[in-house]
Amino acid sequence: MASGISIALVTTWLGLMVAIPMTFMSAIVSNFSKGILETIEEQAIGMAAERSEK
To answer: How far are the Cα atoms of 8, 27, 45, 51 from residue 37, in angstroms, in the given order?
Structure first.
């Protein structure tokens, strides 16, 4: 029984070592993509305004 608990603790630890950094990476990528989308939206609005002036 002790070996089963040991294996469970090791797999949990390994899972957390992957999950915690990936959570931070996900937040970074999400913020980066939001910035890109805002830039694209601003440019699209500007292009639409230029077309409507013609």
So the answer is: 42, 15, 12, 21
Q: What is the CA radius of gyration of the chain?
A: 23
Look at residue 10 and tell me if it is in a domain: no
pTM of the predicted model, to two decimals? 0.65
Number of structural domains found in the chain: 1
2-44 pLDDT, tens digit per residue, is 889 999 999 999 999 999 999 999 999 999 999 999 999 999 9
Half-sphere exposure in the Cβ direction for 53 (13 Å, CA) = 6
**Which amino acid is residue 43, in one-letter code?**
Q
